[in-house]
Amino acid sequence: MRTIDWVNGAVEIIDQTALPNEERVLRLHTVGELIAAIQSLAVRGAPALGVAGAFGVALAARVHSDDPAALSVAVRKIESARPTAVNLARGARRAAALLPHGPEAVLAEACRVRDEEIEASAAMARLGADLVAELCGNRPRLLTHCNTGGLAAVTIGTALGVVGELHQRGLLAGVIASETRPLLQGARLTSWELTRWGIEHRVAVDSAGPFLMARGEVDAVILGADRICANGDVINKIGTYAHALGARRAGIPFLVVAPESTVDVGTPSGAQVEIEDRGSAEVTAWSEAVNPAFDITPYDLVTAIVTDRRVIRVDRGERP
Ligand SMILES: CSC[C@@H](O)[C@@H](O)C(=O)COP(=O)(O)O
Hints:
The protein is an alpha/beta fold. The chain has helices at residues 31-39, 46-63, 68-79, 86-96, 103-136, 159-168, 185-197, 209-214, 240-250, and strands spanning 4-7, 10-14, 25-28, 141-145, 174-178, 201-204, 220-223, 227-229, 234-237, 254-257, 263-264, 294-297, 304-306, 311-312. The longest helix has 34 residues, at 103-136. The structure holds 5-S-methyl-1-O-phosphono-5-thio-D-ribulose (MRU). Its EC number is 5.3.1.23.
């Protein structure tokens, strides 16, 4: 299953707004449709957004091949469809760099972005499973937040890919997926993926995570990132920071799994990152709400960052 792909001249995605009730594939033919899918979270998760950005430019290149001004407007709109995951603008810019060579060259580059994410997922699964085994020993109980599986990448995923690899090695005792308010990426999507993989799991409300850690029911927290800054600060789904604090207090590892395409050494720290505000409608119809979609976990709460090429032991002073 590929979450996002280029099929017969259009972008095909699994519509993540419909899961787990319905497995629906959407075909996106225009940049407008693609941007709407990104903004509604029909396609979401940092690696998948990078691929969406690149395919979006491939769509634009077909329509506007003889109109450079329209092309650059389209590229800017794609890049800024969501602000926080560095992958989106990166994927779009990689494909856009090929625009002078024509639409086929742009599409070929977009397919490379897709293929690299598939390879990165496989590499992270191996590196991450080795590290969890080293830090936690046999049969750890893991807590994960948001959705970092194949749905958030192209296949396999980041942190959830590590979970899957540990399961395949027979090393996993169980998983707690925090529900991830307000759009329930954990309760809807992670739970759906874990069920498909046959992995035993339970869903916890977000605020239960630190308490479950304090009660000794979690051996490590493992999750993904939308951006990792030069100093090691981790930008990820709102609720991540609270889980990092809980892990530190409980004395258990806090592991971040993300491809190199999410590492942004051009941004010194989390303070410089735009945190998406998704407005109040997603939270409540009864009163005004503040709805930041991501938060910043300071590097000094992070044990290690696992990418497709390296393990960065932040706890030992290593930095991206
Ligand atoms: C492998 S996905 C890593 C992150 O992108 C993920 O944890 C996350 O925060 C996704 O947020 P979302 O708002 O669902 O796109």
